[in-house]
Amino acid sequence: MTADHGTQPFWETKPLEALSDEEWDSLCDGCGRCCLNKLEDEETGEIFWTNVACKLLDHTSCRCGDYENRWDHVPDCVKLDPQEVVEQSYTWLPATCAYRLIAEGRKLYWWHPLVCGDPGMIHVAGVSVRNRVISEEDIPADTLEDHLEEWPGLDPFAEPAIRL
Question: Is 142 within the bounds of a domain?
Answer without folding.
Answer: yes
